[in-house]
Amino acid sequence: MTDDTVYSLIDGEVFEGTGDPVVVDDPATGSERIRYADGGEPAAAAALDSAQEGGRAWRALSPSRRGEVLVEASRRIRAAAEDLAQLECASAGKPIRDTRAEAQKVAEMFAFYAGFADKLFGDVVPVPTSHLNIVTREPLDTVVQLTPWNAPLFTAGWQLAPALAAGCAAVLKPSELTPSSSLMLARILHQAGVPAGAVNVVAGLGGTAGARLVSDERAGRVVFIGSVPTGRRVAAAAAGAGRPSLLELGGKSANIVFADADLKRAARAAQGAIFAAAGQSCTAGSRLLVQRPVYDQMVEWVSDAASRLVVGAPSDPATEVGPINNRRQFERVCGLIETGVSEGAKLMTGGPAADLAPGFFVRPTVFADVTPDMTIASEEIFGPVLAISPFDDEEEALALANGGAFDLAGAVWTRDVYRAIRMAKAIRAGTVWVNGYRSLSVMSPFGGMRGSGFGRSSGIDVMHEYTQPKSLWIETDESAVAPFGYGPED
Q1: Is the pTM of this model over 0.90?
Q2: Which of 72, 89, 176, 282 is catalytic?
Q3: N or C: fewer beta carbons within 10 Å in the chain?
Q4: d(CA 132, CA 40)
Q5: Model confidence over 404-425: pLDDT tens digits?
Q6: Catalytic-residue membership of 168
């Protein structure tokens, strides 16, 4: 496995922090794993300075050349995929089987966006004058990107690839708990030919380094992935500096199963929807809504299957569910499980894995008979906790699905194509699956609505997030009279 020393990477060089110590525990053992000094405001300021020069060097390359560099980056990421996966497994506590897949996905991201580098075409607008009006798309110079601890490598690639394809420089601040894989990814990009200052990584705390980055006027856009409260503070700080933000926030997604669905497939998919990544996913299908005629059967199947999932060390290839990433989140998940029991939900299986202590392990947990007024029905848990509720008809299913504050994702299972289309259109979410769950591709736009954020971070849509139109008015008629003023002959 590669070195896990933590520092900021500014202009391609190590930038040692001088702030308060940041202590990171190993989620599998509960003991201290790494300790480093907060980069703080000095690292943030240096990164923004570096991005100005690095961005100019990156944009000096032709769009086609930038695309070639990103293709090379994809090749190098694929070659280093095992090292990236091992580092991500150790730092984020994710099962190695998952991190190996995610490392390959990151390579795909750079290959996909490499094709966009020379395809940001402009427009010609037929204005009602003698002008040739050309609209081009210009990069936002420097973008600031704050990524979370639940999928640090995946989200770093998801953000960096389109920003670089658009011609932007990027200052990436990963969570202070999981900076290692982002640092390794940045070094790979530099080796592929991305100018050092075009990608800087700041290792530090949100209250110091993050606050400095999101409030700086040199940020053309601020991108944040994380919790709703923090996202709102980030958006407010960016707005105070006159800068827009793109937010990917919380989710409490509804996975709706009708009685006519393929129930065995739906039961299997319901497990992946919530228990993959130990439930630490914004798109997790944490609410399973089941039509009453098949409710008892689905509860039995899902609960039994959940009890048989393999919980264990992330480095073990047999592990299906790893630990919660950090102690604070582990305690929160355990507390919400207790709340579910105290509020009357029926605990079918799961709970804290006492036999795996002092690691931050929670067994796949299933609650049945969950009512809308219960905390576990409305609050994002961000852990392997599933709340199952019954419904009678489409109207009730939609009321339950759309009744919360989050609108990120959802799913509907049915063999009735008319119902499938009706429900998919009516579910208020940025992503809706029909007879499936968790399918994501960098090719398709991803983002939420209302409390789940705004903006789209993938597909062609994100290229518009990282660029802005410029309108060029070119006079084509030499005899055109100036609209105002006197000429020399006057």
Answers
A1: yes
A2: 282
A3: C
A4: 49
A5: 888 899 999 999 999 999 999 9
A6: no
